[in-house]
Amino acid sequence: MDERTVGRAMWRFWSLGGEVRALAGATAVRNAAAPDHPLGTFLCELRTEEIAPLLAGPFRRVLVDPDTPPAAEAQLALHDWKLDVQLHLALPADAAVDPPASAARPVVDDAGWAEVRRLFRIDHLEEDARRGRSARSEAATTAAVAVRRGLGPGVTYLLAERSGEVAGCVATWPGEDGVGLVEDVFVHPGHRHRGVASELLRHAVTHARRRGAPCVAIGAEVGDTPKHLYNRFGFRPVAVARSYELTTGRGTA
After folding, report:
1. Pair 97, 214: CB distance under 8 Å
2. CA-CA distance, 173 to 177, in Å (whole number)?
3. Which of 2, 119, 132, 227 is least enclosed, having the fewest CB within 10 Å?
4. Taking the domain 104-239, which CATH number applies?
5. CA distance between the termini of the chain
6. Which residues pair with 181 in a beta bridge?
């Protein structure tokens, strides 16, 4: 699986449930459920150096791929768009995965999404502390969950339970063109180092493969430890992907 294939699977996942429009030199995605969230309104497939007209729009994030003109990326950096780097990994079709040993229930109602939000809030606070930045607002967590809920029925969120409480969550998508995706793997701090994350991965990969995705991709922060878990599980590094987020005033590139 090559860099372009995995990158496309990533942005297609985040476009689900949203409006996808072809612009002059880029593709725009807008999710009405949370348009102000960086994953709710973004640009991808950037193919022009003349990016000032594009950045005059409402976009909060720009994804960079191997076909993005270097000068376009340079303009984002010049005008203080913040670089975010993610490791993309892929599980080959011939990689064997043990069947899950326990049950996981799909998120199908408000109560299930409330559990997802509870886990996301913990994740957000941990991430902000790890990066040495101020804790994001409750509204930001709500918007992040709204983006996920707006992805539609093609994406399944699963909850793992241990000792009568929700221990973790994961998202799984059978994808397109034979490439599925696993996203949002998170385990509650009280249930870590007990195999919950590996079990969630088994559920997510099995779910995607049963729905037609022989290959499965996943993303990981380059500076965080889950990348090692994914690699031990069988995911192989494909590429380091870059994106730029608008965190200050409107860019003027």
Report:
1. no
2. 12
3. 132
4. 3.40.630.30
5. 34
6. 173, 217
| Residue entry with tokens 């607002």 | 137
For residue 248, count other CB atoms closer than 10 A to its CB: 10
Report the chain (253 residues): mean pLDDT per 10 consecutive residues. 94 95 96 89 96 91 97 95 97 96 97 98 96 94 95 96 96 94 97 96 97 96 94 97 80 35
Cβ-based neighbours of 185, under 8 Å, separated by 6 or more: 168, 169, 170, 197, 200, 201, 204, 218, 226
Task: Please report the beta strands in the chain, taking only residues with DSSP state E, as ranges in sequence order.
Answer: 19-23, 26-30, 41-44, 61-64, 82-91, 104-106, 156-162, 165-176, 179-187, 215-221, 236-245
Q: Which helix (H) or strand (E) holds 192?
A: none
- Say which amino acid occupies 30: R
Amino acid code (one letter) for 66 = P
* DSSP 8-class letter at 246: -
The amino acid sitting at 5 is T
The residues with which 86 forms a beta bridge, in sequence order, are: 221, 241
> Which secondary structure element, helix H or strand E, spans residue 44, and what is its range?
strand 41-44
Determine contact, residues 215/92, Cβ cutoff 8 Å: yes
Distance of CA 32 to the CA centre of its chain: 18
Rg of the Cα trace of the chain? 18
